[in-house]
Amino acid sequence: MLSRLNIKKEYLLIAASILALLVAYQVAFKKTIEAWQLHSDLKRQISQSTDLGYQPGYLERKNANLDKIIKLYKADTNNYRSIILSDIVSIAEQEKVKLSQVPTQDAVYHSSQFLIQKLSFEGDFFSLIRTINRLSVMRNIGFVRSVGLKSQRAANYNQSERIVMDISFQIVNQSDIK
Fold first, then answer.
1. pLDDT tens across 20-57, in order?
2. Disulfide-capable partner of 171 in 29, 44, 142, 165 (CB 3.0 to 4.6 Å)?
3. Residue 73: DSSP 8-state
4. pLDDT reported for residue 91
5. What is the pTM of this model?
């Protein structure tokens, strides 16, 4: 049939190669080109967006958790010396420890966001450790910022050695908490 049409073989070869290219485009190249265009569109969108790291849900959860933590360590700084100290003294008496010193508040330890209250206790080592353990879990007195233990030799040898524990509590000002 082709021999009767009188078509040159060169034209037939060109038509067959164009047909092969169309089939190859439909089968292989079309999906590759579409994927490349999608990639370039997405890349352009990423470069135009301002901040992909901003996640409001995560920030809200984080702020809520931080607020819960801060509320654990807040105390009324105006009444700290009267009400809270009576609770601390009762814990110390239960553990057979003496609250030996409540130094005057130093302006260095104050800021608009927190204050540091230092207390000194006397007693034997294990009672002091039990006291610090109970104070660290007590609510609304602030959190234990630092603890220092030191031993003081008695003036005469008939008395036992005294151990003094200095505790610094960091208290968040209640007026700053919303």
1. 999 988 888 888 889 999 999 988 887 776 565 667 78
2. 142
3. T
4. 86
5. 0.50
* Pair (86, 10) in one structural domain: no
Domain that residue 18 falls in: 2-48
CA distance 5 to 89: 116
Residue 37 and residue 112 in one domain: no
One domain for residues 99 and 165: yes
Tokens read off for 71: 């509320």
Same domain, 42 and 95: no
Do 104 and 148 lie in one domain? The reply is yes
Contacts of 110 (CB under 8 A, 6+ apart): 116
Task: Name the residue among 69, 148, 153, 45 with its Cα closest to residue 101.
Answer: 148
For residue 174, give every residue at least 6 positions away whose Cβ sits within 8 Å of its Cβ, in sequence order, or none: 74, 75, 76, 77
- Nearest 5°: phi and psi at 32? -65, -45
Cα–Cα dist 170/143, whole Å? 6
Identify the sign of the CA torsion 23, 27, 29, 34: positive
3-state secondary structure 75-118: ECCCCHHHHHHHHHHHHHHHCCCEEEECCCCCHHHECCCEEEEE
Structure tokens of 4?
């009767």
